[in-house]
Amino acid sequence: MTISEQPTKSKNVAAIYPLSPMQQGMLFHTLYSPESGIYFEQFICTISGNLNVAVFKQAWQQVVERHPVLKTLFVWENRKKPLQIVRHQVTLPWTECDWRLLAPSEQQKQVEEFLVSDRTQGFKLDQAPLMRCALLRLGENTYELVASFHHLLVDGWSLPILFQEVFTFYEAGNLGERLSLPTPRPYQEYITWLQRQDIAAAENFWRQNLQGFTAPTPLGGNRGVHHQGNFLDITFELSSQITDTLQSFAQQHRVTLSTLVQGAWAILLSRYSGELDVVFGATVSGRPPTLAGVESMVGLFINTLPVRVQIPEDTAIVPWLQYLQTQQIEREPYSYSPLVDIHGWSEVPRGMSLFESLVVFENYPVDAALQEPLASLEIDHVRVFEINNYPLTLVVAAQQTLSGKIIYDSDRFDADTVTRMMGHFQNLLTAIVTEPELSITQVPLISNTEKQQLISAWSANKAQYSSNYCLHQLFEQQVEKTPDAVALVFGEQSLTYSELNVRANQLAHHLQSLGVKPETLVGVCVERSFEMMVALLGILKAGGAYLPLDPDYPAERLEFMLADAQVSVLVTQSQCLDILPIFSANKVCLDTDWQVISTLSPENPVSQAIPESLAYVIYTSGSTGKPKGVMVNHGNVTRLFAATQDWFNFDASDVWTLFHSYAFDFSVWEMWGALLYGGRLVIVPFWVSRDPEAFYDLLLREGVTVLNQTPSAFRQLIWVESSRRDAEAQRGGDEKIALRWVIFGGEALDPTSLLPWFERHGDAYPQLVNMYGITETTVHVTFRPLTMTDTESRRSVIGVPIPDLQVYILDEHLQPVPVGVRGEMYVGGAGVTRGYLNRPELTQQRFIRLETRDNTVTYDPLYKTGDLARYLPDGNIEYLGRIDHQVKVRGFRIELGEIEAALNQHPVVQENVVIAREDTPGNQRLVAYIVADAVKSESPQIPSTTKETTWTSPQLLINELRQHLEGQLPDYMIPWAFVLLDSLPLTTNGKLDRRALPSPDLDQNRHTSFVPPQTETEQAIADIISSVLEIAKIGIHDNFFELGGHSLLATQVVSRLRQTFTIELPVQTIFQSPTIAGLAEIVIGKQLEQVDDDALAQILAEVNQLSSQEVKLQLNKDESI
């Protein structure tokens, strides 16, 4: 139907015409979330004076009668496109309440309850008018006016026009005068103008404008990702001085205040997201200057458009703002473009928002219009309640001062986060105009106070724990204290402190005779045994530094390490010689050469080693594929134990395990944690470390009190302990574990995996601790005691820095990021090591010197970790993963940990890892590796607690897992393939071995082929979707949105489903179940519910002797109460 078609059969229909693009979007979102109150506008103000209520009410009715849009309703059922219908006449709903006799506190309570009730009532969009007024009398001459509208009718520019007319009519009526105002131009003329615009030209512009932008700018947020319409707001107001400065700056550089606001918001989004290409939404007035009388029209003219802003790193502020101004001018001719079409022309897929934040600049705010003088009344305390569908909306109004608010989804953001964000926005605005000589990246986001908190109060620990002794010297002091105490246990054998010291001394004397002295690097290739500890101690006592060469490493890796380190002496065993490459170093075989070595002096040797001397070099994996050797001094290690002893209180009663390879720096913590405090160190045989049941037996047998584990290894231990305790309980036994500390390190911890442990042991004893660390900063950096509360979230909180370390979280320009915003961790302080052996360029890249802008503070050196983190409001640090574990698949930036967390929520998933594989060059795809309960045979029967179902094949479980993720994640985050494993492969260090993950089985992961409709219901749904999408052949598993569906087409489908099946169906149904098969299941369920209602109605009719139709009517009334 064109807008010129005017029906004549109905006496109360004045006009019918289509919706504007903005109206279409608002209608969809209102229908999609009918309970959310979205786009419900509530205007409230206080009226003081001798108000003539009857005249005031009549003034409102006169204004309604003047403007056709205020008499409009909307229809969409059974139509390809929704329409708006204008009534000839409507009566404005009017409510009056007299609360003069109530106490002030009770009055305020009644007002708030009324406002909430009014919002809850909402509007029925197919019934006019979509507005109403209430007058709440609080005193003899004091009233609260509540004017409620649906945003479909009017925009912010229209409200001042309406209220000026209302009070103009009121003033005239109060004087007994008859007022005649010029007839306003109808909103329908704007709709006519819209239909004449060149949509092809708009498409060409927006395609070019958004080319290459593939995913919405991430906002983050410290809560969930799905908003339910729980919106709050926080207001702000700049001082008159800053406002004057902003206006002067704008005039001087020929930009608008709106451009300044958008520029500041773009920088804020860039800093918060870490991206240099951001998109946000902005409202435009939408009132075309070529349309006669548009300035006095009432209606919804505004439109929301994407604003794409690129942040060039070294560009000065002023020319960049002027460029943004030019971009605004270039967008203006296409400001009529429907947002749903712009989204379709972009590269951002359907089902994802084009942007998540909206900027609204009000240059004609309604409260300013109401402050114009009135003869008999005063208007103040103006406020507006509104909700839109974006997680964040910045509203700015320019009056005597620049003020505004941030409206936020409280299900996604907390008030403190938004308050900080608002402060950062003000900081940016202020800095832009007070320091215009800065480049964009230099504009400060955080205040000096916040910066002081981040870099001083939380980060820059100044404690010093330096020691004048080397590691072996501290060990020798312990030998003097407890010579006969057991130092080492291996299998059934043990060595005392004195025995270990003597053997190490004899080896040290031998090594010194071979030229070993401070800074001499000695290779060690020894199997787990007493000899391994003798070798390490002997090298240190000789003054040298050890290079661990794990016999289980591939020969190629060992060859590289020996050549790269250029060792001149190698300590080994005869059984290891075959795996070592041929090279010219002096070899010391601890078995065949020991007869000679044992004749040497048992006394402590004298060496020139000092705390600054090299203690060991451990090779870690390199991004280039070649490992790099990290050089660690004695002092780096000794201060680690001194700085953490107040937390742990290690002593001679502790029993430790040497669980990890001595080529992994966790072993440094295990060895010296025992030997520096007189404790007992149990060397775990290699195959015991790979067998969780055997290792659990060792923990019980040896009475281990301090256990150090990677989270992956501890999860396996939890399963063993659980099954063993259950079996023991059935036998009436009670195995007791002696642990007092369990310390995690080496990889990210998912705290929810600890819930079974805490449920059995509590969270006080043993105490579990999460410690983040890296080899380059000497084992550990942070400390976080864990409690049951931590299991409520999958956030890996790593705590606070060790007292003599500093942790800074910086952006890519080395500026501190605000609380809650991700950045890269940099570590400074006494734990920072020398750097990389024979790699000066790499050392310079990763161990950096940083100065503040004013050169007042120097950080030297800082280690660039490559790890993402953010500060939490309480000063704790949350670990967010490796930068190189952030992947982009088909243009979407994906946090693999988010997918892993979603998979862990499925009850049969024990553990999982998700990686991006590129088995075919250029085709990167997500693959999930799953360890699930009972998936250890060819025909598993796996119980699910989410459904009364069992899986009889891996394929069925994979389908269930895929459906589980589809309910929580966007399509682009659903893994392409799933691989079921008995266990995740681990490296010799107990970390996940990503390289050992197998290729996926394509047969198990084959996507469903075309399946035609099988039932009448499926066929009827297929016919509807085929008709709407104009596609002939659709399978029951094909996704509506992948076939080209979008929000407006979804509304059509749901409307036709309602009509075809005579059921109630919310719009979001098709978003939750976008396939024919899924919709058919829901439709059948609704029909069964209807059958039950019919049966109930018949029974009630018989009992009450009413007709079935009368009972149905009564039931409907009851349900609506």
UniProtKB/TrEMBL annotation:
GO terms for molecular function: catalytic activity; phosphopantetheine binding. GO terms for biological process: amino acid activation for nonribosomal peptide biosynthetic process; lipid biosynthetic process; secondary metabolite biosynthetic process. SUPFAM superfamilies: Acetyl-CoA synthetase-like, ACP-like, CoA-dependent acyltransferases. Keywords: Phosphopantetheine, Phosphoprotein. Pfam families: AMP-binding, AMP-binding_C, Condensation, PP-binding. The keyword Oxidoreductase does not apply. Residues 1012-1087 form the Carrier domain. Its cofactor is pantetheine 4'-phosphate. The keyword Phosphoprotein applies. One of its GO terms (cellular component) is cytosol. NCBIfam families: AA-adenyl-dom. Belongs to the ATP-dependent AMP-binding enzyme family. PANTHER family: NONRIBOSOMAL PEPTIDE SYNTHETASE (PTHR45527), PLIPASTATIN SYNTHASE SUBUNIT B (PTHR45527:SF14). This is PuwH. The gene is puwH.
